[in-house]
Write a structure and sequence with these properties.
It is a single chain. This protein has a domain at 35-226: MFS general substrate transporter like domains (Growth Hormone, Chain: A, Up-down Bundle). 80% of the residues lie in helices and 0% in strands. The protein has 14 helices and no strands. It has helices spanning 2-26, 33-54, 60-66, 71-89, 92-99, 101-118, 124-141, 144-155, 162-192, 199-218, 232-245, 247-274, 283-305, 312-339. Pfam families: MFS_5.
Amino acid sequence: MEMFFYLVFGALGAVVAALELSKTNKDRINTSSAFNSFKNNYLLVYSLMMAGDWLQGPYVYYLYSTYGFGKGEIGQLFIAGFGSSMLFGTIVGSLADKQGRKRACVTYCLTYILSCITKHSPQYKILMIGRILGGIATSLLFSAFESWLVAEHNKRGFEQQWLSITFSKAIFLGNGLVAILSGLFGNLLVDSFSLGPVAPFDAAACFLAIGMVIILSSWTENYGDPSESKDLLTQFRGAAVAIASDEKIALLGAIQSLFEGSMYTFVFLWTPALSPNDEEIPHGFIFATFMLASMLGSSLASRLMARSPPRVESYMQIVFVVSSVSLLLPIVTSVCYRLH
């Protein structure tokens, strides 16, 4: 029966991938061989970096629980990671511009590898250091690589419209296909090969090390424009002025913050919610299914946005209602189960 579910999942994933690739083929743009080589190099590195990140996600809570930590202590570890990402995220962009984007990408690899290594220790303080390092690495992942890509793309004189090709494929691979495969691979390591919950972190470190070697051997350094760099206080002041001058910016920020808050809560609670009595569950496979659903949503959103005119407000209302109901379902089913 388990194999049947894997086959169905694989077939569904293949259909989604085929739809995405056919959509890309319809909008194919003629590019140069030099650009294709540059693009493929970046996509390979970015996929390895995202694999190093996605492999860890399904097993963080589970690993901590196997070390004997309760929900409160695990919550503190999660908060430390989120807080580290929040604090470091405010300065990582300007630091990368000044110190070099390539150097920042290598720092991401080293920081995340060190974070993975700490997962071998059952000591709370060591794990806390690992969470802080992981938060720093997350901030670097979602800033340094894209800024390096944009600067390097322009430095090499490629057509501006070609940049969207690289970004769209990076999203398809990094946030879609790689995430799904990472979940399945993690499940294979932990459940099929019985290597334990720390195995995905070791695999992540290997992927990160391979990507770092490629960066060091094939990427060139680039920096931000010193004339455009601003100190942190000036950036916050500019943001405050923008929020105060336009109500829509403030409302958009509030909506984004609330949505991200719900997702962070979900990231922390989905493991204990699915195994309240420490039942054995296929963490990687569940995560891969979730990411496949996310990929389907992205594909659906792109088709809705292609309509003229795109009614973003109407779509987002539906998204928030469906998301809220989905997050309420576990509570409803749990209450019904207890009543019966």
